[in-house]
Amino acid sequence: MEKKTLNKLDLDLYEEVLDNGFRIFVIPFPNVNNMYVTLSTNYGSIQREFIPYGETEMVEVPDGVAHFLEHKVFEQKDGKDPFEFFGERGADANANTTNVKTTYLFSGSKYLEDNLNYLLDYVYSPYFTDENVEKEKGIIEQEMRMYEDDPYSVIFENMTYNTFVNHPIKIRVIGNYDSIYSITKEDLYTCYNTFYQPSNMFLVATGNVKPKEIIDIVKKNMSKKKFGKTQKIEIKKYDEPNKVAKKNDSIAMNVNVPKVGIGYKLDISKFNLPFKDIYNYISLFFDIKCGSTSLLNEELKNKGIINEELYISSVDVDNYICFYVLAETKNTKKLLDSINEVIQDKKVDKKDFDRKVNATISSLISASDNIYAMNSKVMNNIIRYNKVETNDYDKIRNLSFDEMKKVINKLDFSNYLTYIVKPK
Amino acid sequence: MKYTKIKEEAYNLHIIKTNKFKKNVIKVNFKNRVVKENIVKRRLIPNILSDSNAIYPTIRLLNIKTEELYNLMISGNVTQSGNSIITSFTATFLNDKYAPGLLKDAVSFVSNIIFNPIVIDNHFDDKAFKHSCELLKEEIELYNENPGSYALEETLKELGPNTPLAYPIYGTVKEIDSTLNTDVYKYYLDMINTDAVDIFIIGDIDDSVKDIIKEAFKNLKHKRVNTKHYIEHKEFNDEYREIKKVKPYNQSKLIIGYKLGDLTDYEKEYVLPIYSYILGGGPDSRLFSNVREKNSLCYSISSSVRIVSNIMLITSGINASSYKKALKLIKEEVDNMAKGNFNNKDIEKAKITYLSAYEEVNDSIYSILNDYNTHEYLKTDLVNIRKKKIVEVTKKDIMKVIPKIHPEIVYLLEGSKDDGKENS
Predict the structure, then answer these.
(1) Using one digit for the tens of pLDDT, what is the confidence trace for B203-230?
(2) pTM of the entire predicted model
(3) What ipTM goes with this model?
(4) Which residues of A touch B147 (CB under 8 A)?
(5) Is A88 known to be catalytic?
(6) E strand segments, B177-218
(7) What domains are defined for chain B?
């Protein structure tokens, strides 16, 4: 067990790697009753072409399998419902799937040993039948329809789709109607056997937890299970062109206020800097230019073009970082032009930069009170960097204004796309 | 943790000392009886105050100031709760260990936002007033375009036509258009001078906080009267009245509404929540396992109680073609409960879930604050008492409550595009 300190956050991180490659991360919180435990696999919707476990040829699986699999992992041969198990112990259980990972989780203040053992037991005992796979399709169809009525999901998914040409990050996590109905139990086993190998998975426990206790429970549990020989996972590599896939697009929905988005696909392959630093610089740039303290935000409000703040979000994969600015407006053209104009002007004020860095540090300290936020931080770090960053504080503190200017000047902001959700 | 309540002439001060968190929170509540004609004015005020402060005359300058105050987070909200309407200003900021001297600045910043707007000739700044009106109109449009919230508002109208349940949450566009700036200013003065005020402050603070608050809120002078919170129903239909509306969504929303008769405080706080939990509280509830898991008719289904309004709701997202079947299954589960077809194990499971949730209250600075806030307004028990009382609930108690749950409304918002794959 290795202990590391999370600098300036008054927290420690404990790490352990089991013989089968499974990794465990624990951050104990003093003064907290609750425990939050997540079990994740490095597998999401983007891993759709790969060499299955025990085979030699690449296969392609239907869209939405990772998410479908997440639903079906809850199915148990003995007919017991995992939700009931956790419910009986006062724990909240859930699971979620993103482009890059699938996570099973529970939180609760008691019965740690029971809950943790059961989490490992149900996730590592797949039971897929033609019948139970068929039964799930209607449920997932309803989940998909729910998102299709949500204009924010629609604009975000469609913008990601239009940003990328080849990379499967463009594809919706949930899949589509046809792909969901085409999924078979064989597809599920293929993906399960490949991506749910312990060496591709990790557990993160935060809150009222003792590192040794967690590690001992997991070790003992895993030692009783039979796993196949670890096999390295080979996933298809994609040659993603620089240009956005579709420059301008729109959709008509049952909305009253149009929604617009403008996204920038930024190639960072030519930088000789850590990814996180580049990401932070770009994020600060968008915050300074379009955030709540920007001149743009003030001007757009004064002109009545927007009423609420602009919303900034990002997607990153391989050597691309994409930033999206989204908003509600009845003056779609003017808004998109205005945002684009300020982004093309790369000038930034040092006063803004210094203030934002301080504010970011304060947010970091504030978030370190939260067992859910810190658990997510560990998960995201593992998925993105394969290790946990223990010095976020200094990383942010040491960001330099001059370096930011250099990074921003090198980026090509002419590579953008727009999307509009129009009223019917 | 130490709680002190100090009754000043014009407000109650609630001090909750705890050193568990890296941050402090202050919440200032203005509470009065909800009056339909005043909802719009009430809703306009928080935005006007943040848009046109005498010291920070634009929202941009105000946001810059919050970043300088170690990224202090401030929000102004209006909540309708039973017969009351509450305007609250909440600020979260790092405690003095991480941001020396911030407590005093943060408190005076909040007071400045509330008491120091730009006022010219007995009205607010015109630009801020106009912007706030536009923002509110947009909020109404956004609320109505969301199928879930639209269906909910329609159901509430049907459930309590002569009560505040029927009031539009944000008012109406027509009301906004006929509201004058001077009226809103006059109403603001009324709010400041006659509303019941409660100030909650929680965190790593010492006794000096009393004087800091006293100084910052010296504008509050007069004595105030508290309002009655609970909505009570006198007439009951005792049968389901079906209402249908069609809109072009991909999914249909089904809401079933119940009115609650004369429940005792104990029944409201402890017995009914356990009943609702067994019926539709979580993924191991009756509704979830029968309507979703066994019959694949939905992705989401749940029941919830709104104590202040004395109502219970069952909500789900389905295909319109499954409407009859879903309704039949839901009614069957409700009838099963009424026949007493549940056992002590179900009750114990619900209790464990609540006990676990109670444990979690003390992990979050906001939950602790809300616990005291709810206790102050509704005279509900504090969490430490709740832990002791909930375990006493018996099946007999639940059977006694069931006849007091009166069926009223079945509301279906039919999605006209929800039955073919061509939309997916």
Answers:
(1) 999 999 999 999 999 999 887 877 888 9
(2) 0.93
(3) 0.91
(4) 149
(5) no
(6) 196-203
(7) 2-216 (3.30.830.10), 241-415 (3.30.830.10)
